[in-house]
Protein backbone atom coordinates (compact mmCIF):
# COMPACT_ATOMS: atom_id res chain seq x y z
CA UNK A 1 0.00 0.00 0.00
CA UNK A 2 1.62 3.17 -1.23
CA UNK A 3 -0.07 6.56 -1.51
CA UNK A 4 0.79 10.16 -2.21
CA UNK A 5 -0.07 12.04 1.00
CA UNK A 6 -2.07 15.17 0.29
CA UNK A 7 -1.92 17.41 3.37
CA UNK A 8 -3.85 20.40 2.05
CA UNK A 9 -3.75 23.83 3.72
CA UNK A 10 -5.07 23.24 7.23
CA UNK A 11 -3.46 19.99 8.42
CA UNK A 12 0.25 20.94 8.14
CA UNK A 13 -0.25 24.20 10.06
CA UNK A 14 -3.18 23.69 12.39
CA UNK A 15 -3.60 19.95 12.89
CA UNK A 16 -0.11 18.61 13.50
CA UNK A 17 -1.47 16.06 15.97
CA UNK A 18 -3.62 14.67 13.15
CA UNK A 19 -0.68 14.50 10.77
CA UNK A 20 1.64 12.95 13.35
CA UNK A 21 -0.83 10.30 14.43
CA UNK A 22 -1.85 9.44 10.86
CA UNK A 23 1.78 8.97 9.83
CA UNK A 24 2.51 6.78 12.88
CA UNK A 25 -0.59 4.66 12.37
CA UNK A 26 0.13 4.32 8.64
CA UNK A 27 3.67 3.15 9.37
CA UNK A 28 2.44 0.60 11.91
CA UNK A 29 -0.12 -0.82 9.47
CA UNK A 30 2.17 -0.98 6.46
CA UNK A 31 0.83 2.01 4.53
CA UNK A 32 3.63 3.93 2.85
CA UNK A 33 2.91 7.65 2.53
CA UNK A 34 4.89 9.60 -0.06
CA UNK A 35 5.24 13.38 0.34
CA UNK A 36 5.06 15.54 -2.76
CA UNK A 37 6.38 19.02 -2.20
CA UNK A 38 4.64 20.78 -5.07
CA UNK A 39 1.11 20.09 -3.83
CA UNK A 40 -0.86 23.26 -3.16
CA UNK A 41 -4.45 24.08 -2.16
CA UNK A 42 -6.92 21.44 -3.42
CA UNK A 43 -9.23 24.06 -4.93
CA UNK A 44 -12.10 23.80 -2.44
CA UNK A 45 -12.40 27.52 -1.57
CA UNK A 46 -12.21 28.42 -5.25
CA UNK A 47 -15.30 26.41 -6.19
CA UNK A 48 -17.55 29.19 -4.88
CA UNK A 49 -15.68 31.77 -6.94
CA UNK A 50 -14.92 30.14 -10.28
CA UNK A 51 -15.60 26.54 -11.18
CA UNK A 52 -12.96 26.16 -13.91
CA UNK A 53 -10.23 27.55 -11.67
CA UNK A 54 -11.15 25.03 -8.95
CA UNK A 55 -10.88 22.23 -11.54
CA UNK A 56 -7.50 23.54 -12.65
CA UNK A 57 -6.15 23.58 -9.11
CA UNK A 58 -7.46 20.09 -8.44
CA UNK A 59 -6.09 18.81 -11.75
CA UNK A 60 -2.65 20.18 -10.98
CA UNK A 61 -2.55 18.28 -7.68
CA UNK A 62 -3.92 15.11 -9.25
CA UNK A 63 -1.32 15.29 -12.02
CA UNK A 64 1.50 15.40 -9.47
CA UNK A 65 0.37 12.12 -7.92
CA UNK A 66 -0.28 10.60 -11.33
CA UNK A 67 3.24 11.46 -12.42
CA UNK A 68 4.53 9.30 -9.56
CA UNK A 69 2.05 6.56 -10.39
CA UNK A 70 0.43 6.88 -6.98
CA UNK A 71 -3.15 7.05 -5.77
CA UNK A 72 -3.76 10.02 -3.51
CA UNK A 73 -4.80 9.90 0.14
CA UNK A 74 -5.99 12.92 2.08
CA UNK A 75 -6.54 13.63 5.78
CA UNK A 76 -8.98 16.45 5.12
CA UNK A 77 -12.55 15.66 4.14
CA UNK A 78 -13.00 18.85 2.10
CA UNK A 79 -9.82 18.13 0.10
CA UNK A 80 -10.96 14.53 -0.39
CA UNK A 81 -14.36 15.60 -1.66
CA UNK A 82 -13.15 18.31 -4.00
CA UNK A 83 -10.34 16.16 -5.46
CA UNK A 84 -12.70 13.18 -5.83
CA UNK A 85 -15.28 15.35 -7.58
CA UNK A 86 -12.73 16.85 -9.96
CA UNK A 87 -11.20 13.43 -10.56
CA UNK A 88 -14.56 11.88 -11.46
CA UNK A 89 -15.43 14.69 -13.87
CA UNK A 90 -12.02 14.77 -15.49
CA UNK A 91 -12.08 10.99 -15.91
CA UNK A 92 -15.59 10.81 -17.31
CA UNK A 93 -15.79 13.91 -19.51
CA UNK A 94 -13.16 13.87 -22.19
CA UNK A 95 -14.01 17.34 -23.50
CA UNK A 96 -13.69 18.83 -20.02
CA UNK A 97 -10.37 17.06 -19.51
CA UNK A 98 -9.08 18.51 -22.78
CA UNK A 99 -10.24 21.99 -21.86
CA UNK A 100 -8.65 21.85 -18.40
CA UNK A 101 -5.42 20.26 -19.69
CA UNK A 102 -5.20 22.96 -22.29
CA UNK A 103 -5.10 25.58 -19.54
CA UNK A 104 -2.97 23.43 -17.23
CA UNK A 105 -0.26 23.42 -19.89
CA UNK A 106 0.91 26.83 -18.54
CA UNK A 107 2.48 24.75 -15.78
CA UNK A 108 3.75 22.18 -18.26
CA UNK A 109 1.40 19.67 -16.65
CA UNK A 110 -1.30 17.31 -17.83
CA UNK A 111 -3.76 15.04 -16.01
CA UNK A 112 -4.86 11.87 -17.72
CA UNK A 113 -7.33 10.56 -15.17
CA UNK A 114 -5.43 7.48 -14.04
CA UNK A 115 -5.43 7.74 -10.26
CA UNK A 116 -7.85 7.28 -7.36
CA UNK A 117 -8.48 9.65 -4.46
CA UNK A 118 -9.29 8.37 -0.99
CA UNK A 119 -9.77 9.70 2.50
CA UNK A 120 -7.26 8.26 4.98
CA UNK A 121 -10.16 6.85 7.00
CA UNK A 122 -11.46 5.07 3.93
CA UNK A 123 -8.03 3.60 3.30
CA UNK A 124 -8.03 2.26 6.88
CA UNK A 125 -11.49 0.78 6.42
CA UNK A 126 -11.23 -0.52 2.88
CA UNK A 127 -7.58 -1.16 2.08
CA UNK A 128 -6.20 -2.08 5.50
CA UNK A 129 -9.48 -3.46 6.79
CA UNK A 130 -10.89 -4.14 10.26
CA UNK A 131 -9.37 -7.63 10.34
CA UNK A 132 -5.80 -6.45 9.89
CA UNK A 133 -6.35 -3.65 12.40
CA UNK A 134 -7.64 -6.22 14.90
CA UNK A 135 -4.54 -8.36 14.43
CA UNK A 136 -2.33 -5.40 15.34
CA UNK A 137 -4.15 -4.25 18.49
CA UNK A 138 -2.01 -3.97 21.63
CA UNK A 139 -4.07 -1.93 24.09
CA UNK A 140 -7.71 -2.56 24.95
CA UNK A 141 -9.76 0.64 24.83
CA UNK A 142 -12.98 -0.86 26.19
CA UNK A 143 -13.04 1.66 29.05
CA UNK A 144 -13.62 4.45 26.58
CA UNK A 145 -16.51 5.80 24.62
CA UNK A 146 -16.24 8.21 21.71
CA UNK A 147 -18.67 10.28 19.70
CA UNK A 148 -18.03 9.78 15.99
CA UNK A 149 -18.43 12.92 13.92
CA UNK A 150 -18.54 12.03 10.23
CA UNK A 151 -18.73 15.62 9.03
CA UNK A 152 -19.95 16.34 5.54
CA UNK A 153 -17.40 15.70 2.86
CA UNK A 154 -16.10 12.30 3.93
CA UNK A 155 -19.25 10.78 2.40
CA UNK A 156 -20.97 13.58 0.51
CA UNK A 157 -21.94 14.22 -2.20
CA UNK A 158 -22.60 10.47 -2.34
CA UNK A 159 -22.63 10.48 -6.15
CA UNK A 160 -18.85 10.87 -6.28
CA UNK A 161 -18.02 8.18 -3.71
CA UNK A 162 -19.34 5.09 -5.51
CA UNK A 163 -21.12 3.03 -2.88
CA UNK A 164 -18.81 3.70 0.01
CA UNK A 165 -20.87 3.77 3.24
CA UNK A 166 -24.42 5.12 3.60
CA UNK A 167 -24.87 8.87 3.89
CA UNK A 168 -28.07 8.64 5.95
CA UNK A 169 -26.88 5.77 8.11
CA UNK A 170 -23.10 5.75 8.08
CA UNK A 171 -21.18 3.04 9.92
CA UNK A 172 -17.53 3.02 8.81
CA UNK A 173 -16.19 5.41 11.46
CA UNK A 174 -18.29 3.73 14.18
CA UNK A 175 -16.84 0.36 13.19
CA UNK A 176 -13.32 1.77 13.14
CA UNK A 177 -13.86 3.10 16.67
CA UNK A 178 -15.40 -0.13 17.92
CA UNK A 179 -12.66 -2.35 16.50
CA UNK A 180 -10.38 -0.79 19.15
CA UNK A 181 -12.71 -2.08 21.86
CA UNK A 182 -14.08 1.41 22.58
CA UNK A 183 -17.77 2.20 22.38
CA UNK A 184 -19.10 4.51 19.69
CA UNK A 185 -21.99 6.40 21.28
CA UNK A 186 -25.30 7.25 19.64
CA UNK A 187 -26.29 10.88 19.80
CA UNK A 188 -28.77 13.32 18.29
CA UNK A 189 -27.91 14.91 14.94
CA UNK A 190 -24.88 12.69 14.55
CA UNK A 191 -24.66 13.37 10.81
CA UNK A 192 -24.94 17.12 11.01
CA UNK A 193 -22.40 19.66 9.78
CA UNK A 194 -19.82 21.41 12.00
CA UNK A 195 -20.61 24.84 10.55
CA UNK A 196 -17.00 25.37 9.49
CA UNK A 197 -17.92 26.16 5.91
CA UNK A 198 -19.29 29.56 6.90
CA UNK A 199 -17.00 30.47 9.79
CA UNK A 200 -15.49 33.26 7.69
CA UNK A 201 -18.89 34.43 6.40
CA UNK A 202 -20.99 34.59 9.55
CA UNK A 203 -19.16 33.56 12.69
CA UNK A 204 -22.15 33.60 15.03
CA UNK A 205 -24.16 31.28 12.76
CA UNK A 206 -21.21 28.89 12.46
CA UNK A 207 -20.72 28.85 16.24
CA UNK A 208 -24.42 28.12 16.81
CA UNK A 209 -24.24 25.16 14.43
CA UNK A 210 -21.18 23.81 16.27
CA UNK A 211 -22.81 24.43 19.65
CA UNK A 212 -25.78 22.22 18.77
CA UNK A 213 -23.49 19.26 18.32
CA UNK A 214 -21.36 19.98 21.38
CA UNK A 215 -24.58 20.06 23.44
CA UNK A 216 -25.69 16.72 22.08
CA UNK A 217 -22.32 15.05 22.57
CA UNK A 218 -21.83 16.45 26.06
CA UNK A 219 -25.09 14.80 27.13
CA UNK A 220 -23.72 11.35 26.15
CA UNK A 221 -20.78 11.44 28.60
CA UNK A 222 -18.45 10.32 25.81
CA UNK A 223 -14.75 10.69 26.64
CA UNK A 224 -14.10 12.68 23.48
CA UNK A 225 -15.34 13.59 20.03
CA UNK A 226 -13.68 11.61 17.28
CA UNK A 227 -12.91 13.61 14.14
CA UNK A 228 -11.52 12.89 10.70
CA UNK A 229 -11.32 16.43 9.30
CA UNK A 230 -9.13 19.35 10.40
CA UNK A 231 -11.80 21.92 9.68
CA UNK A 232 -14.28 20.23 12.00
CA UNK A 233 -11.58 20.56 14.64
CA UNK A 234 -11.38 24.31 14.13
CA UNK A 235 -15.06 24.37 15.11
CA UNK A 236 -15.14 21.85 17.96
CA UNK A 237 -11.72 22.33 19.47
CA UNK A 238 -10.46 25.67 18.19
CA UNK A 239 -13.79 27.41 18.84
CA UNK A 240 -14.94 25.48 21.91
CA UNK A 241 -13.73 28.11 24.40
CA UNK A 242 -15.35 30.86 22.37
CA UNK A 243 -18.66 28.98 22.25
CA UNK A 244 -18.47 28.40 26.02
CA UNK A 245 -17.96 32.11 26.61
CA UNK A 246 -20.49 33.32 24.06
CA UNK A 247 -23.33 31.06 25.19
CA UNK A 248 -22.35 30.69 28.85
CA UNK A 249 -21.98 26.93 28.72
CA UNK A 250 -19.23 24.57 29.75
CA UNK A 251 -18.05 21.57 27.80
CA UNK A 252 -14.38 20.91 28.40
CA UNK A 253 -14.84 18.15 25.85
CA UNK A 254 -11.65 16.66 24.40
CA UNK A 255 -11.47 16.47 20.62
CA UNK A 256 -9.39 13.67 19.13
CA UNK A 257 -8.57 12.65 15.60
CA UNK A 258 -9.39 9.05 14.78
CA UNK A 259 -5.73 8.10 14.16
CA UNK A 260 -4.94 9.26 17.71
CA UNK A 261 -7.51 6.81 19.06
CA UNK A 262 -6.40 3.99 16.77
CA UNK A 263 -2.77 4.78 17.58
CA UNK A 264 -3.41 4.26 21.30
CA UNK A 265 -4.99 0.89 20.55
CA UNK A 266 -1.99 -0.06 18.40
CA UNK A 267 0.26 0.60 21.38
CA UNK A 268 1.76 3.88 20.20
CA UNK A 269 2.44 6.36 23.03
CA UNK A 270 0.27 9.49 23.47
CA UNK A 271 3.43 11.54 23.09
CA UNK A 272 4.15 10.11 19.64
CA UNK A 273 0.51 10.63 18.65
CA UNK A 274 0.73 14.35 19.33
CA UNK A 275 -1.63 14.40 22.35
CA UNK A 276 0.38 17.31 23.76
CA UNK A 277 -0.88 19.39 20.86
CA UNK A 278 -4.54 18.84 21.69
CA UNK A 279 -5.79 22.15 23.01
CA UNK A 280 -8.49 20.69 25.25
CA UNK A 281 -6.34 18.42 27.33
CA UNK A 282 -7.62 14.85 27.44
CA UNK A 283 -5.97 14.32 30.84
CA UNK A 284 -8.80 12.43 32.54
CA UNK A 285 -9.15 10.22 29.55
CA UNK A 286 -5.45 9.42 29.28
CA UNK A 287 -5.33 8.70 33.03
CA UNK A 288 -7.72 5.80 32.39
CA UNK A 289 -5.31 4.17 29.93
CA UNK B 1 -36.37 50.19 1.08
CA UNK B 2 -38.94 49.63 3.82
CA UNK B 3 -39.64 46.09 4.90
CA UNK B 4 -42.99 46.18 3.16
CA UNK B 5 -41.58 47.48 -0.08
CA UNK B 6 -38.90 44.81 0.05
CA UNK B 7 -41.59 42.13 0.09
CA UNK B 8 -43.28 43.42 -3.07
CA UNK B 9 -42.19 41.52 -6.17
CA UNK B 10 -42.15 43.94 -9.08
CA UNK B 11 -42.85 41.89 -12.17
CA UNK B 12 -41.40 44.48 -14.54
CA UNK B 13 -38.06 44.22 -12.72
CA UNK B 14 -37.83 40.44 -12.99
CA UNK B 15 -35.37 38.77 -15.30
CA UNK B 16 -37.10 35.56 -16.34
CA UNK B 17 -34.00 34.35 -18.19
CA UNK B 18 -32.02 34.13 -14.96
CA UNK B 19 -33.05 30.49 -14.51
CA UNK B 20 -31.71 29.64 -17.98
CA UNK B 21 -28.47 31.41 -17.18
CA UNK B 22 -28.19 29.16 -14.11
CA UNK B 23 -29.18 26.07 -16.10
CA UNK B 24 -26.41 26.69 -18.60
CA UNK B 25 -23.74 26.16 -15.93
CA UNK B 26 -22.52 22.76 -14.66
CA UNK B 27 -24.51 22.04 -11.50
CA UNK B 28 -27.41 24.35 -12.29
CA UNK B 29 -29.10 22.13 -14.87
CA UNK B 30 -31.92 20.87 -12.66
CA UNK B 31 -33.16 24.12 -11.11
CA UNK B 32 -36.47 24.06 -13.00
CA UNK B 33 -37.27 20.63 -11.54
CA UNK B 34 -37.87 22.18 -8.10
CA UNK B 35 -41.48 21.76 -6.93
CA UNK B 36 -40.85 23.72 -3.74
CA UNK B 37 -41.41 20.83 -1.30
CA UNK B 38 -39.00 22.37 1.20
CA UNK B 39 -37.06 19.21 2.05
CA UNK B 40 -33.87 21.24 1.54
CA UNK B 41 -34.85 23.88 4.05
CA UNK B 42 -36.20 21.39 6.59
CA UNK B 43 -32.88 19.56 6.88
CA UNK B 44 -30.57 22.55 6.54
CA UNK B 45 -28.26 22.99 9.56
CA UNK B 46 -27.76 26.68 8.79
CA UNK B 47 -31.49 27.37 8.50
CA UNK B 48 -31.92 25.72 11.90
CA UNK B 49 -30.00 28.55 13.56
CA UNK B 50 -30.34 31.42 11.09
CA UNK B 51 -33.61 32.45 9.40
CA UNK B 52 -31.75 34.48 6.81
CA UNK B 53 -30.77 31.34 4.95
CA UNK B 54 -33.52 29.42 3.20
CA UNK B 55 -32.57 27.31 0.16
CA UNK B 56 -36.17 26.82 -0.99
CA UNK B 57 -36.65 30.59 -0.99
CA UNK B 58 -33.43 31.19 -2.91
CA UNK B 59 -34.47 28.67 -5.59
CA UNK B 60 -37.95 30.23 -5.79
CA UNK B 61 -36.47 33.72 -6.13
CA UNK B 62 -34.11 32.51 -8.85
CA UNK B 63 -36.94 30.80 -10.74
CA UNK B 64 -39.01 33.98 -10.58
CA UNK B 65 -36.10 35.92 -12.04
CA UNK B 66 -35.21 38.05 -9.01
CA UNK B 67 -31.64 38.13 -10.28
CA UNK B 68 -30.38 41.33 -8.73
CA UNK B 69 -31.90 40.58 -5.32
CA UNK B 70 -30.38 37.09 -5.27
CA UNK B 71 -26.93 38.01 -6.56
CA UNK B 72 -26.49 41.05 -4.32
CA UNK B 73 -27.76 39.28 -1.20
CA UNK B 74 -25.66 38.21 1.75
CA UNK B 75 -27.65 35.02 2.19
CA UNK B 76 -26.30 33.17 -0.87
CA UNK B 77 -22.93 33.05 0.92
CA UNK B 78 -24.39 31.31 3.97
CA UNK B 79 -24.52 27.82 2.44
CA UNK B 80 -22.03 25.65 4.33
CA UNK B 81 -21.81 23.13 1.43
CA UNK B 82 -22.81 20.24 3.68
CA UNK B 83 -24.84 18.58 0.89
CA UNK B 84 -27.65 17.49 3.25
CA UNK B 85 -30.25 19.11 0.98
CA UNK B 86 -28.71 17.75 -2.20
CA UNK B 87 -28.75 14.19 -0.80
CA UNK B 88 -32.44 14.44 0.12
CA UNK B 89 -33.93 16.46 -2.73
CA UNK B 90 -36.60 14.27 -4.37
CA UNK B 91 -36.16 16.16 -7.64
CA UNK B 92 -32.35 15.93 -7.76
CA UNK B 93 -31.95 19.67 -7.96
CA UNK B 94 -28.35 19.30 -6.68
CA UNK B 95 -28.84 22.35 -4.49
CA UNK B 96 -25.27 22.62 -3.21
CA UNK B 97 -23.91 22.74 -6.76
CA UNK B 98 -26.71 25.14 -7.67
CA UNK B 99 -25.65 27.46 -4.83
CA UNK B 100 -22.12 27.38 -6.24
CA UNK B 101 -23.44 28.30 -9.69
CA UNK B 102 -25.28 31.28 -8.17
CA UNK B 103 -22.15 32.32 -6.27
CA UNK B 104 -20.02 32.00 -9.43
CA UNK B 105 -22.47 34.23 -11.32
CA UNK B 106 -22.55 36.70 -8.40
CA UNK B 107 -18.74 36.88 -8.49
CA UNK B 108 -18.79 37.62 -12.23
CA UNK B 109 -21.35 40.37 -11.63
CA UNK B 110 -19.08 41.98 -9.04
CA UNK B 111 -20.63 40.66 -5.82
CA UNK B 112 -17.82 38.54 -4.36
CA UNK B 113 -18.04 38.18 -0.58
CA UNK B 114 -15.10 39.83 1.27
CA UNK B 115 -14.30 36.55 3.01
CA UNK B 116 -13.62 34.95 -0.38
CA UNK B 117 -11.50 37.90 -1.49
CA UNK B 118 -9.31 37.27 1.56
CA UNK B 119 -9.10 33.55 0.80
CA UNK B 120 -8.25 34.11 -2.87
CA UNK B 121 -5.57 36.60 -1.86
CA UNK B 122 -3.99 34.07 0.48
CA UNK B 123 -4.01 31.49 -2.31
CA UNK B 124 -2.55 33.96 -4.76
CA UNK B 125 0.28 34.84 -2.35
CA UNK B 126 1.05 31.45 -0.83
CA UNK B 127 -0.67 28.80 -2.95
CA UNK B 128 -2.38 27.79 0.30
CA UNK B 129 -4.93 29.26 2.69
CA UNK B 130 -2.41 29.50 5.50
CA UNK B 131 1.11 30.72 5.02
CA UNK B 132 3.84 28.24 5.91
CA UNK B 133 6.74 30.26 7.19
CA UNK B 134 10.04 29.46 8.87
CA UNK B 135 8.35 29.29 12.25
CA UNK B 136 5.92 26.63 11.07
CA UNK B 137 8.64 24.60 9.41
CA UNK B 138 10.80 24.79 12.53
CA UNK B 139 7.89 23.48 14.56
CA UNK B 140 7.35 20.71 12.02
CA UNK B 141 11.03 19.74 12.10
CA UNK B 142 11.00 19.53 15.90
CA UNK B 143 8.09 17.13 15.68
CA UNK B 144 9.87 15.02 13.08
CA UNK B 145 7.60 16.14 10.23
CA UNK B 146 8.96 17.01 6.78
CA UNK B 147 9.35 20.66 5.81
CA UNK B 148 6.88 22.18 3.38
CA UNK B 149 7.77 24.63 0.66
CA UNK B 150 5.18 27.08 -0.56
CA UNK B 151 4.55 27.02 -4.27
CA UNK B 152 2.61 30.19 -4.98
CA UNK B 153 3.80 30.56 -8.57
CA UNK B 154 1.63 27.69 -9.84
CA UNK B 155 -1.52 29.07 -8.25
CA UNK B 156 -0.75 32.58 -9.54
CA UNK B 157 -0.48 31.21 -13.07
CA UNK B 158 -3.71 29.22 -12.71
CA UNK B 159 -5.55 32.26 -11.32
CA UNK B 160 -4.60 34.18 -14.47
CA UNK B 161 -6.24 31.55 -16.71
CA UNK B 162 -9.77 32.59 -15.87
CA UNK B 163 -9.06 36.08 -14.57
CA UNK B 164 -9.36 35.38 -10.82
CA UNK B 165 -6.33 37.64 -10.41
CA UNK B 166 -8.19 40.52 -12.08
CA UNK B 167 -11.20 39.87 -9.89
CA UNK B 168 -9.03 40.40 -6.85
CA UNK B 169 -7.68 43.62 -8.27
CA UNK B 170 -11.22 44.93 -8.87
CA UNK B 171 -12.24 43.96 -5.34
CA UNK B 172 -9.21 45.79 -3.96
CA UNK B 173 -9.88 48.92 -5.97
CA UNK B 174 -13.47 48.85 -4.78
CA UNK B 175 -12.22 48.97 -1.19
CA UNK B 176 -10.04 51.99 -1.81
Written overview of the protein:
The complex is a heterodimer of chains A (289) and B (176). Chain A contains 13 helices and eight strands. By secondary structure, chain A is an alpha/beta fold. In chain A, the strands form two sheets. Chain A has a four-stranded parallel sheet, with helices on both faces. Chain A has a four-stranded parallel sheet with strand order 6-5-7-8, with helices on both faces. The model of chain A has no long low-confidence stretch (mean pLDDT 97). Chain B contains twelve helices and no strands. Chain B has helices at residues 3-7, 18-23, 39-42, 45-49, 55-64, 67-71, 84-88, 95-108, 114-126, 134-142, 152-161, 164-175. In chain B, helix 9 packs across helix 12. At the A-B interface, helix 1, helix 2, helix 3 and helix 9 of A face helix 4, helix 7, helix 8, helix 9 and helix 10 of B. Chain A: It holds the Pfam family CCG. Chain A: InterPro entries: Cys_rich_dom (IPR004017), HdrB/HdrD_reductase (IPR051278). Chain A: Keywords: Oxidoreductase. Chain A: This is Cysteine-rich domain-containing protein.
What descriptors fit this protein?
heterodimer, A: 289 residues, alpha/beta, Glutathione S-transferase Yfyf (Class Pi), Chain A, domain 2, Rossmann fold, 2 domains, 4-stranded parallel β-sheet, 13 helices, B: 176 residues, Fumarate Reductase Iron-sulfur Protein, Chain B, domain 2
Largest sheet of chain A: 4 strands, parallel
Sheet having the most strands of chain B: none
What is the percentage of strand-forming residues of chain B?
under 5%
- Overall structural class of chain B, as computed from helix and strand content, comes to mainly alpha
Total helices of chain A: the number is 13
- The CATH first-level class of the largest domain in chain B comes to Mainly Alpha
For the termini of chain A, the CA-CA separation is 31 Å
Mean pLDDT of chain B, to the nearest integer, reads 94
Strand share of the residues of chain A? Answer: 5-15%
SSE pattern of chain A, N- to C-terminal: EHHEHEHHEHHEHEHEHHEHH
CATH topology of the largest domain in chain B: Fumarate Reductase Iron-sulfur Protein, Chain B, domain 2
Q: What structural category characterises the helix and strand content of chain A?
A: alpha/beta
* Total strands of chain A: 8
Biggest sheet, spatial arrangement of strands of chain A: 2-1-3-4
The quaternary organization reads as heterodimer
GO molecular function, one term (chain A): oxidoreductase activity
Domain Cysteine-rich (chain A): 3-83, 147-235
Protein name (chain A): Cysteine-rich domain-containing protein
Keywords (chain A): Oxidoreductase
Amino acid sequence: MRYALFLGCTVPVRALNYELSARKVAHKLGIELVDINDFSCCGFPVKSVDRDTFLLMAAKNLSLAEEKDLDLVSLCSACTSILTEANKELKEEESLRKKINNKLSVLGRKYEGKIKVKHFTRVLYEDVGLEKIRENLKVDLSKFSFAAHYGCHYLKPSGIYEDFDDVENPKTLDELIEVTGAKSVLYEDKKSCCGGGILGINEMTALKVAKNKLDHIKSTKADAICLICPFCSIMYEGSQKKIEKQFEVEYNLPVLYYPQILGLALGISPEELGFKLNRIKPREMLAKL
Amino acid sequence: MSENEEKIIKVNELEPNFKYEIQAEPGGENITRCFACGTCTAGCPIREVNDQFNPRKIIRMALLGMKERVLSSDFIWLCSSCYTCAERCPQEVKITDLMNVIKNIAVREGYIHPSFVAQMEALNSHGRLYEIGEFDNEKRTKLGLPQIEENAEDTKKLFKQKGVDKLLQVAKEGEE
